[in-house]
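INFO  loader      accepted 1 record
INFO  loader      residues=650
INFO  predictor   begin
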Amino acid sequence: MNQKERMQELVITLNRAAKAYYQDGAEIMTNFEYDKLYDELTALEKETGITLANSPTVRVGYEVLTELPKERHPSPMLSLDKTKEREQLAEFLGEQRGILSWKLDGLTVVLTYENGELVKAVTRGNGEVGEVVTNNAKTFVNLPLRIAYAGHLVLRGEAVIRYSDFIQINDGIEEAEGKYKNPRNLCAGTVRQLNNAVTAQRRVHFFAFALIEADGVDFENSIEKQFLWMKSQGFEVVEYRMTDRETVAAAVDSFAEAIQTFDVPSDGLVLMYDDIAYGLSLGQTAKFPRNGIAFKWQDETAETKLLSVEWSPSRTGLINPVAIFEPVELEGTTVSRASVHNISIVEALKLGIGDRLLVYKANMIIPQIAENLTGSGNLEIPETCPACGGPAVIQEENETRTLYCTNPECSAKHVKSFTHLVSRDALNIDGLSEETLKKLIAQGLLKERCDIFHLKEHREQIVSMEGLGEKSFENLTASIEQARDTVLYRILYGMGIPNIGLATAKLICKQFAEDPEKAAAATEEELVQIEGIGDVIAHAYVTFFANPAHRQQYDHLLEQVTLTGQQEESAEQKLAGKTFVITGSVAHFANRNEMKELIENLGGKVTGSVTGKTDYLINNDAMSNSTKNRKAKELGVAVITEEQFLDMLE
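INFO  predictor   done
INFO  writer      dumping tokens
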């Protein structure tokens, strides 16, 4: 293969990886591998003097594909050249003073102020054309909407979502597939929302890093003076240190130490000449301005041996591969395991037990496999789930291959069924969070649903668990005892029968006069006579109770409770006959279950997947390229926001 052919191959590979990461939210290669291939392409371009039209070294970002208004930047926004060598930073500075700051990993936004007010915010886009996101920018938690300066001001900065907020947002998403991959992807989608209520909910921060225009202000030819002035106007600027060729290495070291606990995503540093005129006098290449340079962390790597791969099943059926290797020291800590994310990366790394690996910490934080030095490729992908022994199959979506357990009764999925059973609309038991349920299941204290009412028999074992104690145990058992007095529809709903929401459970109980035996023995013919229940729901219901294990759990659960009272009268059935799917985060409800309850109380139906029978997909992230959004568009299903849903009710 000649150099030109290799360059073409690298361009295709890198662009495919970038599209998967930035547009599809998938990951088909590690950051380490991407940087390695990118550096190889850069070297070949320099050596040959050829740069291909669609090379990622010159084509910044992707074309705008949303419905947001678009605007062309006055001049192209170029990326900086980059290095991983401290010595090159000193060489870059020469006799000049420099300003060294974080290179934040979010979404670049250009702000314009007139007469002291924010009038426009535009994303970087592809470097030439960005998207107007002014309404969303006005919700950034630390951005001043008005400033003292009344002239024409243009500045650039990075919109970011902090790690702590990112974790909190992901913790609120039940399905593993629905969780966001990283703060950068979440921030990009959030800033480009069509509904700024969602942007506000996700706590986006803005850090200024460049002042472009400020009429009538003398900055004494200094970027540091610009930073200080922006701070005086109420902007948070990126943390920085003034440096020169003698001190730049020490400044880099101080940032390297700080990143261990830094809550804001960062993928390196930026070094700019403090002397503005000097920097501008150097001009720019076709690819990069010459007044600054980006520094990417030189990842500390260690060689180790792959001992095993742990296949970790989740409650959604996703089975995650985790590499277990001989312990090594990295960035001051001992690491012995790293997530491999999916089957695509397992195959790309050609993993095999006993292989020699190079491991590192991505951005000095997250353990990753950089390279497989052996590449035996002899790792066997399990055909059965390690938790239940059920069939495991490989599924492919957006060029990413993942392993799933297909057994609906998988023990790893029990936590989901128990979480559902103790939820507010079912038994309504406080003190049984998902994490607590996981611990109880792992200890073998919860095997079937009725075991919840026997937890008081395991006092000593429970109070000795981490995060629990005497007080927690007392509160938990009190809540369990209170849950013994309930109504039949809560039991039916709590059983987790496919397609049976709260409203449907109420309809069935009413039809069979609150008789638990008649309700469980209902036939498909009897069920379809109930308005709002069709063949699919009836079949799913009857099939569920035809399973002896399900019927036994239902009977055992009924033995532990006292059925009291009648169900309340239904509200006006405004949504009768309408089928909804809810996805993504919500702003006007505590969670998606609360919205689901409202829909069902108003006669509607909520399902988990988009089909030709779906009337509405509720998704505040209308620009999302998620599977559900794409399916809705294919089928012509209306995609509406929360606001539009609430308008519908009025």
